[in-house]
Amino acid sequence: MKITEYINTLRENVAVAREQGKTVVLIPTMGFLHSGHLSMVEAVRKQDEDYEKFYIVMSIFVNPLQFGPNEDYDRYPRNLVRDTRLAQEAGVDLLFTPSVQEMYPDGPSLTRVNVAKVTDDLCGSHRPGHFEGVATVVSKLFNIVLPDFAYFGQKDYQQYVVIKQMVKDLNIPVQVLLAPTVREEDGLAMSSRNAYLRPEERRQAPVLYRSLQEAAQLIAGGERDVNVVREKIRQRITNETNGKIEYIEIRRADNLAKIERISGAVVIALAVYFGSTRLIDNILVEV
Ligand code: PAF
Description:
With 287 residues, the protein is α/β, with parallel strands linked by helices. It has two domains: 2-179, Rossmann fold; 192-279, Pantoate--beta-alanine Ligase, Chain: A,domain 2 (2-Layer Sandwich), CATH 3.30.1300. Helices cover 38% and strands 21% of the residues. The protein has ten helices and nine strands. The protein has helices at 7-19, 35-46, 80-90, 100-103, 123-126, 130-145, 157-169, 199-204, 207-220, 226-240; strands at residues 2-4, 23-29, 54-60, 94-96, 149-153, 175-179, 244-252, 265-274, 277-286. The strands form two sheets. The protein has a six-stranded parallel beta sheet with strand order 1-4-3-2-5-6, with helices on both faces. A three-stranded antiparallel beta sheet has the order 7-8-9. α2 (35-46) links the parallel β2 (23-29) and β3. The longest helix is centred in the middle third of the chain and has 16 residues, at 130-145. It is globular and about 55 Å long. The structure holds pantoate.
């Protein structure tokens, strides 16, 4: 595995891979890697028997642009030594670890990518500027790496919808793929931020997935009223934990539009604070 913090070096290596006829795949991350990230590398390798067919670029960059002033940019967990080992073991070809200076040499970029509507609510309304920061850095990464495919984890489902919309609207020639959420044994969605949880919060956090599963069962049993299902989730979380609910929403899966009755493909998404740690999770349901 090659590792570089420089855009020029990355471009040279990707160009060589392209000359060799490889398909270039980008897995953008903010590091502190866990099985959720590494499963994306595995998913790529599984796509084809020919191990050499893909050139997998993983980026590790904690993007200051997507953190609000009172958010956790400074304390976001970082461990490049461990990440390098894990990425290498997983089969990454090139690890791109740019500095803030390399990505934003003149300070925060003056050009921003703003994806309207799909960023209006859910995480968008609670984290102003977040998706602008995400869309801006991801479009930079797309321009730097020029990948054929890029993977995004389902845990950040709204982010995936935002990136899909951006790629469509701006005709960016990359195929955006969704990687399933990887969970701990007790159902908690893997996230670098789980490291913040205190033992009691960690014990309570799996209720999020249990409440989502219960909602899916309710829907499978014929319930179609969005408010009834949301209320069921709310009750379970408030009865069983000290978590503070930020939102529980059921939306159309393709464009996050509001619905009153459940039909077709929907996403049930929530954000809940355990202490000062904000956790998000979601499941996709089709009826
Ligand atoms: O999901 C993340 O880790 C980040 O939002 C991403 C896509 C790497 C952009 O900084």
